[in-house]
Each structure stands twice: as C-alpha cells, then as structure tokens.
Design a protein that fits this description.
With 68 residues, this protein is α+β, with helices and mostly antiparallel strands. The chain has a domain of 33 residues. Strands 1-2-3 form a three-stranded antiparallel β-sheet, with no helix packed on it. Strand 2 and strand 3 form a beta hairpin. The radius of gyration is 16 Å and the shape is elongated. The chain starts with a helix and ends in a 16-residue tail after the last strand. The mean pLDDT is 82.
Length: 68
C-alpha cells in the first residue's frame, strides 16, 4: 500500500514541476555556433534554434507557429 501511495505522489509531483512549454524539446548546445557571450542551442525534436546568455537551454519552445 505504501508503494502505491509513493507512486501516486511521484506522478503528481512530476505533473506539478514539469515545464509544459518545453516538455517535447530536446535542446543540444553547439559551442561552434556561439556568438560573443551567447550560447547557441538547437532542438533535436522540433528544429528550433535559440541563443541564451545564461548558459542554460531556452525555457520556451522555439518552434515556428506554422509547425505546431
């Protein structure tokens, strides 16, 4: 019984803390494309491209609206 409660709790926490805007995106960094202090990222799922200055992958999907 305790295992079932733990699994349900884990599922609820994943739903709460997952970022729905980038759930399907798989960002990959390509340092050869960096410009100045901005890092280049390309999404392997949707093909979106983005630069960030904080060194972390983008928080939003960069897919073009026509592709959605």
């Amino acid at each position: 019984m305790l295992i079932i409660i733990g699994l349900i709790l884990a599922f609820v926490l994943v739903l709460i803390f997952s970022n729905r805007r980038t759930r399907n995106c798989r960002w990959r960094e390509d340092r050869a494309q960096d410009v100045g202090g901005a890092r280049y990222y390309r999404c392997m799922a949707c093909g979106g491209e983005a630069f960030t200055t904080n060194g972390k992958p983008p928080l939003d999907c960069q897919r073009k609206p026509s592709e959605m």
